[in-house]
Amino acid sequence: MTSQSAFLDSNRLVYSGAAPSPSEQARRARRWGWLIYAECRLRRMKAYFGTILVVALLYPVLYLAAMGIGLGSLVNSGVGGIDGVPYLVFVGAGLLVSTIVTESTNEFTFSIMAGFKWEKTFYATQASPISPAQMVIGEVVGVFVRLFAQAIPFWVALLVFGAAPSGWSWLIVPIAAVAGISFGAPLMAYSATVEDEGYQFAFVQRFIVMPMFLFAGTFYPLAQMPPYLQWVGWISPMWHGTQLGRIVSYGMENPLWLTVVHVLALVIPIVVGVALSVRVFTARLMK
Description:
Layout (H helix, E strand, L loop, with lengths): L2 H14 L5 H23 L4 H31 L7 H21 L2 H7 L4 H6 L5 H29 L11 H20 L8 H16 L11 H8 L2 H14 L5 H30 L2
Helix pairs in contact: 2-7, 3-4, 3-7, 4-7, 4-8, 4-11, 7-8, 7-12, 8-11, 8-12, 11-12
C-alpha cells in the first residue's frame, strides 16, 4: 500500500464516521501500543518479504540435502551416526535453530539503527501515546512472529527428510523462535546505542554469530570439542536452543537439571535484553 492510498483510506474512514475519536484512539494506543507497533513492524517486513520467503523455503532443502546426501552419508558409513541416530537426524535440529538465530541478527541490527537514524520510525512513534517500552515489546513480538513463521517450513522439511521422528518435533518451531529472540533482545539493546554506521554489525556477524554457528554444537556434540572452546556453546543461545530442539525432535537423553538450564539460558537473556533496550530507547528518544 502506498502512502497516498493509505492517506485516502484514512480519509474515507474519517468521513464515514466509523473512526474512533482521538481520545479513544489514544486510550487504545496506551493500552495496546505494543500490539499496534508489532503489526507495524510486520508490515514493514513486506519490503523484503521476497528475501524472507527464499530463505525460508530454499535453505532447508539445501542444508538437509547436503547433510543427508553428502556429509551425512559419510558420517553414517564411518561411525554409524551420532548419539544413536543418523547424522541427519542429529544435525537437523541444529540447522533449524542456527538458521533462525542467524536471521534474528538481521532484524535486530540494521533495522533498529534504521528506526533511529534513517527511517526515524521510533521518533515518529514517540509523537503518539505509544511508549518506548511498548516499541521494544512490539519489536520483539513482531520479530518473534516472523521467526516462528520462518521455522515452520524448515520443520516441515525435517519431516519430509525423516530428520524429526518424534511426535513432539513440532515444538522445535517455538524453541527456535525463542532462541532467536534470546540472542536478538540483547543485540537490540546494543544496536540502539549505535549512532554512526561503521563495522559494528559486521563485527557481530563475523566474531559472534559465525563462531556460534561453528562451535556451538550444530554439527557435532559439544563434548567432542576441545575444553577451551566448549564455553562458546555454554554462553550461546544457539546451543541451548539446539539441545532443546534435539530433545523434542528425536528424544535425545538429557537430565532434567540440564534441560532447566537450557530453558533459563534462553529466557534470562530475553528479560535482560528487553529491560536494557527499554532503558536505551527511553534515553535516546528523550534527548
